[in-house]
Amino acid sequence: MNKLCRQVSIESPGPQVRNCVFNFFVPIEDTPPTGARIKIVCAGACYRRRDRSASITSMSSVSSDLSDYCPSQTSPAHAGIREGSFFPGFEVAGVIESLGSAINDSNNCGLRIGQRVIVYPFDEAPAGYAELLVVPDLKYIVPIPDSLPICVAAMLPTGALLAMNAVFKAEEVVREMLKKRAPEDADKKCKLLIVGTGGLALWAVRIASHHYATTGADKHIDITVASLRDEGFRLATEIENVSIVQWNECLYEPQLIERTKDVCGGTVDVVIDFGTTSRSLHRSMHCLNKGGVVLISDEVAEKLMPKFSRLSVEYQQEIIAINNGSVEQLKELVHMVADKKIEPPPHSVFPCEQAAEVIQKLCSSEIPGRAILRFHDIE
């Protein structure tokens, strides 16, 4: 009989946050011949994407269907989800426990047993965080330098990577806009608005500040952050050369839109919106100029793009879905954070046994920055 290990599965919370964290004991899978088995040390507190099916082992470990407890649609009522503190993804950092039987010195990609690594969110990733994770191919495993704390590394495979991809796409959009500008407007800067307060927006601001300065794009882009709460306002002001506008949702929409335009000096050219609601996207589009582009995650795009397709045509604006990024981008990100070129956002580490309590606090925006679950202590 196969040995068992613990698995923590986090489902998308419905209107009631309770019963969206499940603890199972699942069979330990054999190490695939061309892959590896990872002992999870830390994992980012993310919920399962809707396009990821629940694992068979997890489903067979409980007597009732998860759908009885967890609605398939995330409730945007939770502040932590609206602002990007709690988002779908798969963030794992750990050590290699074993390598497959077909792995040797010629094809091990420089990996070895006991090495600290993070895992790129591959398509067959399980629905939860098991203590031992089977990875089918070594190409999904990214080693991390000794200088990078493993709890920080755990934040990179989804939150930081998605933010990085959005920042890179925004620069690409801006450069195309600059090519089309009239000669008399060539010296005018493009305006970028980043919407959100949680981990996604905080990563995006930090990555944008570094990347645009490195590529020279900072000469062409002004960054403003639309913060959704007071704590995010304070955290965002720690970044130099970034303007802040507070989106207090107690105010009427016209007031928020005018406030944003005042801070930005008019309508903006590009919006990276890490919000998850129709209201957030609608507001972003009203802050966007004609011909502008708004970038949203592909998870949110699936839900909102059909609702806003007509409006985007009417306003002559474009909505672009951003995916999680590539393995190569993740490797680049690891080195930038390890070399302290990018400072990670605030984060807190909790024992995995407290997962349910952590998710409750994330949904209520009671945890600044990111929350990390620790499964084992190796440092």
UniProtKB/TrEMBL annotation:
Enoyl reductase (ER) domain segment(s): 23-373
InterPro entries (alphabetical): ER, GroES-like_sf, NAD(P)-bd_dom_sf, Zn_alcohol_dh
Record key words, sorted: Metal-binding, Oxidoreductase, Zinc
Gene Ontology molecular-function annotations: metal ion binding; oxidoreductase activity
SUPFAM superfamilies from the UniProt entry: GroES-like, NAD(P)-binding Rossmann-fold domains
Name of the protein this chain belongs to: Zinc-binding dehydrogenase
Organism from which the protein derives: Musca domestica
